[in-house]
């Protein structure tokens, strides 16, 4: 979802377009699964992202579609996929992520030459060729999500480490690499994580059984002083009430885990040392947040929070424990006013819009051991 959004922002900035973004939804099977989502399993993007901040940062207008994308396509666009006087459907083949420079340029020409009020980019729509890396700096979650993650950070004692361990539909593959997460923990400890600090673990696997004990895969986590995951938060008094409020704001509990996952990204990003799973864009998004922490999680630099570190470390590891990437968080001592918004986009055709279909992808990105999901 994040890469689709950034690609769409890049296109809108380049051609002076308004961005119409459909709602976030439950993790689905590619774009067709997304179209099957009902209102009860979606949530408008202005409830997830700080749209006002992002409009100022990117210099474009961003309008959330408060309904399902299917409703918008059916009721507003007529329910066909043929270009007409109202909407243009850019034509392209395959996964945009793997597209050649020639294909990218062809799509750009189609968008630039379109005369219709709306441009509808459908399918697995994302490519780093549409946007520079600095766009990640100004993609910010809603103040409400930031507030909840801040509450968890304070409850953890401000100084903690974090993991994201991707399992879910990848669990069988993970178990083939290792019977438990012990090797990932070993790599984390060798990279500077401390057993004496509490850890927050974000995961789509079953971390605790019905008795509240760590399941076999996560048993090595017992090496840490304190282990907290999503299922443990309800036991923390100062957080429990906020979680109840969070659930009541959702149209149904069916979307709770998918939506709270974005809060977990913020929680994990606040750790001194972060260890993520190399195949997951969910983990990579956390790393991006940390790299641009002064803009993505601005309260981290607030002296009142008394964060005891200034520069944190980020790592990505395979389930086998093989280190696949490393980085550092932004220096919290750097004055926030030194950061400037990106240049304003040219507003050449303000009456045209672009709608981009959110989606989820699973499978190979290309190359050995370079699998990538789209959990973010």
Automatic annotation (TrEMBL):
The keyword Nucleus does not apply. Residues 334-376 are annotated as: Disordered. The keyword Ribosomal protein does not apply. One of its GO terms (molecular function) is peptide-O-fucosyltransferase activity. Residues 358-367 have a biased composition (Basic residues). It comes from the Eukaryota. GO terms for biological process: fucose metabolic process. CDD domains: O-FucT_like. Keywords: Carbohydrate metabolism, Fucose metabolism, Transferase. PANTHER family: GDP-FUCOSE PROTEIN O-FUCOSYLTRANSFERASE 2. This is O-fucosyltransferase family protein.
């Amino acid at each position: 979802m994040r890469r689709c959004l950034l690609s769409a922002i890049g296109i809108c900035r380049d051609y002076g377009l308004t961005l119409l973004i459909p709602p976030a939804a439950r993790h689905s099977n590619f774009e067709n699964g997304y179209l099957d989502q009902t209102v009860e399993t979606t949530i408008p993007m202005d409830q997830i992202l700080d749209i006002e901040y992002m409009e100022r940062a990117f210099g474009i207008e961003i309008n959330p579609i408060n309904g399902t994308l299917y409703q918008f396509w059916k009721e507003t666009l007529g329910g066909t996929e043929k270009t007409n006087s109202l909407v243009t459907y850019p034509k392209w083949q395959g996964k945009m992520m793997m597209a050649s420079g020639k294909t990218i340029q062809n799509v750009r020409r189609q968008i630039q030459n379109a005369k219709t009020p709306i441009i509808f980019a459908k399918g697995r729509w994302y490519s780093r060729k549409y946007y520079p890396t600095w766009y990640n700096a100004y993609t910010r979650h809603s103040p409400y999500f930031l507030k909840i993650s801040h509450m968890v950070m304070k409850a953890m004692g401000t100084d903690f480490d974090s993991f994201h361990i991707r399992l879910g539909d990848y669990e069988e593959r993970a178990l083939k690499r290792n019977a438990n997460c012990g090797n990932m923990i070993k790599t984390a400890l060798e990279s500077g994580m401390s057993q004496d600090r509490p850890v927050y673990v974000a995961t789509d696997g079953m971390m605790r059984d019905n008795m509240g004990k760590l399941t076999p895969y996560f048993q090595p986590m017992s090496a840490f002083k304190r282990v907290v995951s999503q299922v443990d938060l309800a036991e923390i008094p100062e957080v429990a009430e906020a979680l109840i409020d969070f659930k009541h704001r959702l149209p149904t509990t069916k979307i709770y885990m998918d939506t709270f996952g974005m809060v977990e990204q913020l929680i994990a990003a606040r750790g001194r040392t972060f260890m993520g799973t190399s195949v997951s864009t969910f983990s990579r998004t956390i790393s991006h947040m940390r790299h641009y922490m002064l803009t993505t999680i601005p309260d981290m630099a607030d002296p009142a929070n008394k964060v005891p570190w200034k520069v944190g470390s980020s790592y990505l590891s395979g389930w086998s424990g093989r280190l696949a990437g490393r980085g550092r968080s932004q220096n919290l001592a750097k004055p926030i006013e030194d950061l400037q918004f990106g240049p304003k986009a040219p507003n050449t055709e303000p009456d045209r819009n672009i709608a981009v279909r959110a989606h989820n992808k699973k499978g190979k990105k290309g190359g050995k051991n370079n699998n990538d999901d789209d959990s973010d």
